[in-house]
Design brief:
This protein is 33% helix and 23% strand. The strands form 2 sheets. Strands 3-4-2-1-5-6-7 form a 7-stranded mixed β-sheet, sandwiched between helices. Strands 9-8-10-13-12-11 form a 6-stranded mixed β-sheet. Helix 2 (27-38) packs across helix 9 and helix 4 (144-160) runs parallel beside helix 6 (224-237). The protein contains 9 helices and 13 strands. Strand 11 (284-286), helix 8 and strand 12 form a beta-alpha-beta unit. With 351 residues, the protein is of the alpha/beta class. The chain binds NADP nicotinamide-adenine-dinucleotide phosphate. NADP nicotinamide-adenine-dinucleotide phosphate binds at residues 23-29, 50-51, 53-54, 71, 85-88, 90, 108-109, 144, 174-175, 177-178, 330-331, 334-335.
Length: 351
């Protein structure tokens, strides 16, 4: 006879969930659907939500055509898990309504990340934090640039403690959404055809250019994206003592963010030891063979879930310093994959 525990475990594994994807027609939402499908998330029914202008459009999920509906406060009545990728204002307005209807929200926007009653989760780093979802019924997915950096740094922090992080990012236009992908493509076409490139998404031309400007600028001279990296890293690592400074830059790349990460550690660690730690880290692939000119590239990270880490070397200007180059697909691990992994922890351990 099956034990009670084994029966309960079996029931949990076979349990299916009603899922809503808010922002299903967007760059992240689109990937979200593919991710739920690829990872075989136990979906019973799925609801696809977007603005009124997209209502009636059909999107495919597991071979079925699903009609997109307009997102309203009553969209979540029978929904267990709502995955939001529809911008901060939409999450602010609709996530509490969804939570009141009994749905647990996994939110991709910045709206709830720093709320002390909302867990901010990267499943490889702080899966235990998911438990805090009960306070508001919302779990936040961190910023794409934070996710890839923190997965690469967490094992080093755990082993020798990180005192300070200096990060510079090289972020793809897909991080701004569908319209920015079109803007880069149209500008490249215009320039090669000797026509004047138009810009509406970014303040300047992004084609063949770099903009040290992501999100709005704040009174302290930093951009909001830079401050997000600082605050989110401290919240996820549960360590406010880490000094962090960031410079975030938009570059003319379609998919995958690259980051130059410099750290100072509390205890010494060699580049070799850091590499060995990263080789064992789930979700990380060390790509670091300088003799053969092998290092992480945005074009190699695009379309995969792994975070590529390379150029791992000691910083010779300080006693305990390490440099590395970290690259990941911002739409996948930076958004949809991480959100799906959060939903998996939630479904397996808590619902
Ligand atoms: P996007 O391509 O512009 O898509 C936006 C989506 O949100 C569309 O489906 C849009 O529907 C929907 N939407 C917008 N306003 C809405 C409203 N009032 N009600 C219902 N639906 C609404 O943007 P994205 O890049 O996918 O980003 C979506 C969210 O994910 C943002 O919060 C962003 O910060 C976050 N995020 C993005 C990335 C990234 O790398 N792109 C990474 C992490 C997090 P329509 O098609 O009907 O307009």
């Amino acid at each position: 006879m099956q034990s009670h525990e084994a029966k309960e475990k079996g029931e949990k594994m076979s349990k299916k969930f009603n899922v809503a994807v808010a922002g299903a027609t967007g760059a992240v939402g689109n990937r979200m659907l593919a991710c739920l499908e690829e990872r075989d998330f136990p979906v019973d029914n799925i609801k696809l939500l977007a603005t009124a202008k997209s209502a009636g459009r059909k999107l495919s999920f597991k071979g079925q055509e699903i009609t997109v509906e307009e997102l309203t406060e009553s969209s979540f009545d029978w929904v267990d898990i709502g995955i939001f990728s529809a911008g901060g204002a939409t999450s602010e307005k609709f996530a509490p309504a969804a939570a009141s209807a009994g749905c647990v929200v996994v939110d991709n926007s910045a709206a709830w990340r720093m709320d002390p009653d909302v867990p901010l989760v990267v499943p490889e780093v702080n899966p235990h934090a998911v438990a805090g979802y009960t306070k508001k019924g919302i779990i936040a997915n961190p910023n794409c640039s934070t996710i890839q950096m923190i997965v690469a740094l967490a094992p080093i922090h755990q082993k020798v403690g990180i005192k300070r992080i200096v990060v510079s990012t090289y972020q793809a236009v897909s991080g701004t959404g569908k319209k920015a992908i079109d803007e880069l493509e149209n500008q490249i076409k215009a320039i090669v055809n000797n026509e004047a490139p138009q810009n509406t998404v970014y303040p300047y031309r992004i084609a063949f250019n770099c903009l040290p400007h992501i999100d709005v600028f704040l009174d302290n001279g930093y951009s909001k994206e830079e401050v997000k990296m600082v605050n989110e890293t401290r919240k996820i690592l549960e360590d406010d003592s880490i000094g962090i400074t960031a410079t975030t830059v938009r570059v003319p790349v379609f998919y995958s963010h690259s980051e130059s990460v410099n750290i100072e550690t509390k205890q010494p660690i060699s580049a070799e030891a850091a590499r060995a730690l990263l080789e064992k880290e789930p979700g990380v692939e060390v790509v670091d063979d300088l003799e053969n000119n092998i290092y992480p590239l945005a074009i190699d990270a695009a379309g995969i879930d792994e975070i590529l880490v390379g150029r791992i070397r000691e910083d010779e200007s300080v006693p305990n310093g390490i440099n590395m180059w970290v690259v990941a697909d911002n739409i996948r691990k930076g958004a949809a994959t991480n959100a799906t992994q959060i939903a998996e922890v939630l479904a397996k351990e808590y619902l």
